[in-house]
Write a structure and sequence with these properties.
With 514 residues, the chain is an alpha/beta fold. It is built from 16 helices and 28 strands. Helix content is 31%, strand content 23%. Helix 1 crosses helix 2 and helix 3 crosses helix 4. It is globular, with a radius of gyration of 23 Å.
Length: 514
């Protein structure tokens, strides 16, 4: 008989393992295990073996869980695709990752098919999820594959994409993505979950998009600990609070934008719902305004835990509620296998308390930017240290404080926007001679995308035209919300743009490292 992967299955095979807010189909633990094994068999039948990539472009829905587990058991690597992306952006990810199979939900099927064709994938390599779980081509496909014991080693993993501050995104492969599926899920993932104080009971609410690395990591951690999974496809403050109460949610993963929206309505919403089931609500992905976090801590109690990290493995760092009250603004202390220190521009290690570039040392090794050895090497120092360009200091107790983030990257609503990608689109406009893109303060989203342009002699364009130009070519969240016009942009004789001159005027009196 095929083996089970999850700790809850043998003891509670008929209990609910996965469901969605608002009702609909659910998976029992035994059914979830079976679907995961059949999914692994399906990937194998499609010709995907150890280390081969496939892409998943779907909103939050219950099929994510058996697909993630099936990927683990099948030894493949899935590429989560942001469903906000344009056809060109999706095609780039498929091509760069060499994904050989795409699973996409019905609402995004046209974009998925067009992107797949542009990346050289035939139509039969695109599988569509039905409008509702349990329906559509995906369900028909899954039903044709047997429930058999998958391979045990090596386990599958995720191929997340990130690009730091420049250029197109690059896939990241980390050294901790190795071992058997059981080792990773009930070992590494469980350790991760305990580090962030996740319990071993009750439902874990997934409300942030599963295409992000953070919700995916906590999804796995919750399963490894024995929690069930409850999916929500959108954030709404009233609905979130009602869900926590109705389902006795014990853990969740949210982003600072959610915290800001909740905090702004505290007088209206506080006391209306029983939130006593909560044990750990983890937030991360972007800096959180101090005032908003203070409101949530006072309202929800000491269940709000902060995460700092990246796809490259610069975490996990953790701030418990008690530690954050003692050191407001810190992004946390590292896990035991991680060391953080600051270095100057010449690669010399600085004493505690001195500001410099933050470098990280993992006991399990350094990450790799797949297909970009120059980028990989540029972020390393001798001795195993690597960086993603954050600037800050480490206090004598080992807590890390940011004084600046990656120099140019904009984080809006928890999503990374890479200015070079936006600038490459803007500069292609016939009226634009030069441009710069950077982040400015936004009370709800943390930052918003701002563009500064220099027009060609005698040319001009309206804000709406330039923003529309970008929206035709990029996902909406990457596009400028407003445009400033300059006679000349501040460039050095070497051609280097002094973007800080443009950006800092908007941040005067504001703390970017909140």
């Amino acid at each position: 008989m095929p083996s089970n992967l999850l700790p809850r299955t043998d003891g509670d095979p008929d209990g609910t393992a996965v469901g969605a807010v608002g009702g609909g189909p659910t998976y029992a633990w035994a059914e979830l295990e079976s679907r995961a094994r059949r999914f692994a068999a399906g990937l194998s039948a499609e010709g995907l073996g150890t280390g081969d990539r496939w892409a998943l472009m779907a909103h939050n829905r219950i099929e994510w869980t058996p697909m993630v587990l099936g990927n683990l058991r099948g030894g493949t690597r899935y590429v989560p695709v942001n469903w906000h992306l344009t056809v060109d952006e999706v095609a780039y990810l498929l091509d760069d990752s060499d994904s050989r199979f795409l699973i996409v939900d019905e609402v995004d099927a046209d974009v998925g098919r067009e992107a797949a064709a542009a990346a050289g994938l035939s139509e039969d390599r695109v599988l569509v999820l039905g409008d509702e779980p349990g329906t559509g081509p995906f369900e028909d496909w899954l039903s044709t594959h047997p429930d058999v014991e998958p391979q045990d080693d090596p386990a599958g993993s995720v191929r997340n994409y990130t690009s730091g501050t420049t250029g197109r995104p690059k896939g990241v492969q980390r050294s901790d993505q190795a071992g058997t599926a059981r080792d990773l899920l009930t070992g590494m993932s469980t350790t991760w979950g305990r580090f962030y104080l996740l319990p071993d009971h009750g439902p874990h609410l997934v409300v942030s998009p599963m295409y992000h690395a953070m919700p995916g990591a906590f999804h796995n951690a919750a399963l490894g600990l024995g929690q069930s999974i409850l999916y929500e496809d959108r954030f709404d403050a009233d609905r979130l609070l009602s869900t926590i109460e109705a389902h006795a949610v014990t853990s969740a993963c949210i982003v600072p934008t959610h915290i800001v929206r909740l905090a702004k309505r505290v007088k209206e919403l506080a006391g209306r719902h029983d939130l006593s089931s909560l044990v750990s609500v983890v937030h991360g992905g972007a800096p959180c305004p101090r005032w908003a976090k203070e409101v949530l801590l006072d309202w929800w109690g000491d269940v709000v835990v902060e995460l700092f990290g990246s796809s490259e493995g610069t975490g996990p760092l953790r701030v418990t509620p008690q530690a954050w009250r003692e050191r407001p603004g810190t992004v946390g202390e590292p896990a035991g296998f991680l060391t953080v220190a600051t270095f100057d521009d010449d690669g010399n290690r600085l004493p505690d308390g001195e500001t410099g570039v933050l470098y990280f040392l993992r006991s399990d090794g350094m990450p790799e930017y797949v297909g970009d050895p120059a980028k990989t090497e540029a972020n390393r120092l001798p001795g195993g240290w690597f960086t993603v360009g954050d600037v800050g200091h480490v206090d004598p107790d080992g807590y890390v404080h940011l004084s600046d983030r990656k120099v140019d990257m904009v984080i809006t609503g928890g999503a990374n926007v890479y200015p070079a990608e936006v600038e490459a689109v803007l500069i292609a406009h016939p009226a634009v001679a030069d441009c710069a893109v950077f982040g400015i303060p936004d009370d709800e989203w943390g930052e918003q995308v701002k563009a500064a342009v220099q027009f060609e002699l005698g040319a001009s364009a309206s804000d709406d035209e330039l923003v529309g130009w970008c929206r035709d070519r990029l996902a909406g969240y990457k596009c400028p919300k407003s445009v400033d016009v300059h006679e000349d942009l501040p460039r050095e004789a070497t051609g280097k743009l002094k973007k800080r001159i443009l950006r800092d005027a908007y941040w005067e009196g504001r703390d970017r490292a909140v």
